Amino acid sequence: MPGTFSKSFKILIADKTCSDLVHPGLTCMEAMKLNLVDGIIGGLKFYLPIFLIPLFMKIKDWKKVKTWKDFLKGYGRSCLFALCLNFCSFTGICFTYKWLPLFLTLPAGIGSLFFCFVPPKVRKAEGQGMFNMYVEFLIRRSRSKLIASIRQSKVVVTLLFSILNTCIVYGYLRKASINFWFTSFRITKQENDDKTLAKGCKLIHDEITCFDYLKQELKQTAKFAFALAAIKAIPGRISMLYKQPLEMPKRLLTKFDYEMFMFIMSLNGIFKYLFCLLNRKSRFSIETNCIVSSLISGVGFLFYPQYIVFTMAMTNAVESIYHCIEQSFKSRGKELPLVMKLINKFPLVYFMFLFTAGLDIQLRILYPSLVNKYTHKILSVLTNGKGDELAKNVIKLMIGFE
Ligand SMILES: [Zn+2]
Ligand SMILES: [Zn+2]
To answer: Where do the TM regions start and end (predicted)?
Structure first.
């Protein structure tokens, strides 16, 4: 229990120095130098795939100087942020280690101030990710009966996911969803008089048969889902490529996340199939077809009932609903209410990161069982193993104490 933990932690730490807990065998000055080195390595490792994958996706632009300039600028700035975050967190803890509420939240919070160095696109995903991790902790820890019953029932949780999924997909139809989602489509075409396609289909796919569209979509989704599941199977194993290249396919087979693959395929496949089908056969409006198809496709969640997907759906749905409301004001030619104007001007993602990054890092170290395995992995790479080391020291001290 967090409360009991903080009491025993206080007693345990009373006669200890920061050297015992944070940097065994080193003085604060020596540890500081090491924090600099780990900060640089952590940033370089963490941000490399984030910037390298998009670069590989636009091989056509490799001849342009701008492509490389953007890559180096984005990567460099993000690494600089990682260095600030790591350095502030693990140097600042020498001053705050006795005070549990501020343990890492304050030093990491100060380091998070430099989050503005990260390019906006990456910042958005990272800020939302950090926030989602914290929401997950709250759901896991909540003692409310309602949340507990949701946590335990697969049916209820899938139903809720379906509703969130519907809000996001409907947002795409209204051109209000802008975030990445597994079932996404862009409405680029205007309606025309061509009678070869159903009205709804015309908006989401080219003048090809629905069957051809489905084939095309499933192929693309499969590629994407495969790439994601493969990246997940081999994180931090780039060295394996040249050290043990033959181990790679074996690892890919054994660690490949088939459930995640099926989740992405079914969520997208069922929706696209039903949406086309209903557009052709039903007499209802495109909106209704979209809602019905996305509600049913939410059943794909059963393949991968993970918190990480659920919290992602939660924040994406809230954003979609917000943009839908915003759009309805605009389409009626009405001015936005003051609250919405203020929200639009507020750097929400920056503050989401600022307030939750420190909390997430602290939770990983003090309450490792309440944090998902992705948070463990992400923070391990980002801090170049420093977070894991600190967590081990805390556990060692706790065991010694008991
Ligand atoms: Zn120290
Ligand atoms: Zn169609």
So the answer is: 39-57, 78-98, 155-173, 260-278, 290-310, 348-367
